């Protein structure tokens, strides 16, 4: 099948890749760019494990064709830590608040939380629960994930 070149920014670095028209963004990230942080749970847009940030919005990368991401600025969990290697405030909060167990949902949860904190400085519990309603977690019961996102928002506003 004929391939198309796409150019995008991923975690701050310019990337060019050849993709088939049917290639999904999650497959470009995982298989061609070796960014295996975004997980594949369902490939039917239900679980949110594949969530990444695309131009400031959290998207399920199994629902986006790679060609649709041409020109986009994408962040995955691999690009979340601060430039000096320290954990991003959300990563620190998930660790502190026990916001993960097996970790399968965690990259998607964090990227959803990341987009939420870009648009809302101090989201309350209902707003957080609404934001993560497209991300499934089989382990935590969600309570500590919500607490972690709240804690990240608070530590950001207090720093
Ligand atoms: S793998 Fe994309 S939503 Fe489940
Ligand atoms: S921590 Fe296991 S699925 Fe969420």
Report what the structure shows:
The protein has 159 residues and is of the alpha+beta class. It contains 5 helices and 5 strands. It has helices at residues 25-32, 89-96, 106-119, 125-131, 143-158; strands spanning 4-10, 13-19, 51-54, 57-60, 73-75. It has a 5-stranded mixed beta sheet, with helices on both faces. The longest helix is centred in the C-terminal third of the chain and has 16 residues, at 143-158. It starts with a strand and ends with a helix. The relative contact order is 0.16. It binds FE2/S2 (inorganic) cluster (FES) (2 copies). Residues 100-106, 137-140 line the site of one FE2/S2 (inorganic) cluster. One FE2/S2 (inorganic) cluster (FES) binds next to loops.
**Arrangement of strands in the largest sheet:** 2-1-5-3-4
Order of helices and strands: EEHEEEHHHH
Helix content: 25-40%
Q: Averaging pLDDT over every residue, what do you get?
A: 96
What is the number of helices?
A: 5
Q: What shape does the CA trace take?
A: globular
Radius of gyration: 15 Å
Counted beta strands: 5
Structure ligands: FE2/S2 (inorganic) cluster
Report on the biggest sheet: 5 strands, mixed
Low-confidence stretches: none
Structural class: alpha+beta
Distance separating the two termini: 52 Å
Strand content: 15-25%
Short structural summary:
It is built from five helices and five strands. It is of the alpha+beta class and 159 residues long. One FE2/S2 (inorganic) cluster binds at residues 100-106, 137-140.
């Amino acid at each position: 099948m004929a391939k198309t070149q796409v150019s995008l920014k991923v975690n701050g670095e310019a990337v060019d890749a050849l993709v088939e028209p049917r290639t999904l963004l999650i497959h470009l990230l995982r298989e061609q760019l070796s960014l295996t942080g975004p997980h594949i749970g369902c490939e039917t847009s239900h679980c949110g494990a594949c969530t990444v940030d695309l131009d400031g919005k959290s998207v399920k990368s199994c629902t986006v064709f790679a060609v649709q991401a041409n020109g986009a600025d994408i962040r995955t969990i691999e690009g979340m830590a601060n430039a000096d290697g320290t954990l991003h405030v959300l990563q620190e909060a998930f660790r502190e608040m026990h916001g993960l167990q097996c970790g399968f949902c965690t990259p998607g949860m964090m990227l959803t939380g990341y987009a939420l904190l870009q648009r809302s400085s101090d989201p309350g519990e209902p707003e957080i629960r609404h934001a993560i309603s497209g991300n499934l977690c089989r382990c935590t019961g969600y309570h500590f994930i919500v607490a972690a996102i709240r804690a990240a928002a608070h530590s950001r506003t207090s720093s």
